[in-house]
Design goal:
Length: about 550
Amino acid sequence: MNSQLAKNTKVLIVDDQALAKGYMKYSLEELGFSDITYVDKINSALTSLRSHKFDLIICSYNLKREQDGYYFYDEIKTNGELPLSTAFVFISADTNSDLVQSIIELQPDDFLAKPFTVKDLDRRLSRVLARKKALHGVYLCIDKNQYVQALSEVELFLGNPKHSEFFPLALKIKGEMLSACGNFQQAKDFYQAILKVQTFTWAQLGLVNSYLRLNEDESAEKLVLRLAFKPDSQLAAYDLLTALQIKQNDFDTALECVMMATEISPRNIRRHKTAMDLSRITHDYETQFEAAKKIVRFAKNSIHDKPENYLNVARAGIDYAMTTEASDTDRLIKQANEYIRQLKQAFPKADIQEQMKVVNARLLYLEDEKDNALSLLYKLDEDSWENEGIDALLDKAKIFHDLGLHERSQAVLEQIEERCKKNSDQSEIFLHYINQEKQEKAAIKFSSKDLNNTAVGYFQKGDLDNAMKVFTQAFTIMPKNASIALNLIQAISSKAEKLGVATVSDTLLKKCIKTIENSKLDEVQQQRYHKIRTMLDALQ
């Protein structure tokens, strides 16, 4: 260790184990470090970080109090409180697959597995600190969002042979800065030139991103599919695949991609939120419900923990209960109420009265108490709407529609749309979903709960045209519901038998068949399906 470098380095150690802190203190002092701050809680670490500038942070990944190292790192990066010029090193005695994936995803400056020797610490910290010192000027420009200047700085860096040890990292930064400056064609040419020399994973991922920005989707897909099978690029590849499928409006495949990524790295809140948005678009209410529950689970004790998460689980549970089999309704209502209980326990001072009126109105409607649901809505304070979140407004739009207040529902959806357009933080996926909701709720006047029963009524009266129309509407907003798919295909087959030919598109039939065959049918449903398929096959 360079003694002058160690002497001038201000260090923050975050560890709640006394023995580990003692050994770290001894090791660092042996290496010449003297300006060292020790804390054992994340709150103390945040206080120190916000009042002092540190050159090196060494943090235990497995903190037991309040937050752990993952959420500490996530929080300071999200808030812009970790300058690129500050080195961040994780330490841990555990090296399980969850931790390894987290390290791959978080990309700290280094990770050191316990137990380690003073020699190990010397080697790793010397390399990290030397890198930070060499690229200090570049990092300062990036931290200030001065990407053009950062690009100039990195070009100067690459022109100096004495920095050759750090050229691979500098080249990676150059590609990122070309993209940050909007020079996507230059970035593409740069990455392709790099890959002719050496197949760096970062260069392949950068090339995929350049292809996407240049609308060369076919080239992007070919490369990213290969990267999805490599452990060191799997997560980033799934993120790029998700972005590609969203760009192409293939939301079902995008949802599959993001769900595969969440299986690999379950603690990433951003992906669970993307899964929620995509499951809304695809009307996959079960996945929406599960994603909302995961957000609550993994957001606890982190910057992402807030009352809205719990409310969103209750809302998603109601959505699911409105669109699934009646036998599941009680279970889902109980789960929704349990998350409300957890919300009140975790955030006893949260102001959720207005939002709870809407949630309770939806629960009352679910239990066929329409008059009581309406009376709750009349008690809403309309003056507070401007201050309410988008999810709260969306819940209002849903209950207004379900209770037949269609104009009010559309007005709320339009208000959400306007707010989304003004808010740069709101995702394009969510805006797409709101547009879809506006169109569907304008075209389909019945609630999801009433659609199937209304269609069954038409079918029993022999009104096949209206039965098919309403069953098709029901299947549009409940495409995962096997009972509705079975009812629709039965209406199709009955009309086909009457006319001697099927009168709907193959696409709709295939969707119904896919839903039915991917679901677990009871014996009666299986017999119905076999009879319907036999009839349809005979007509083709």
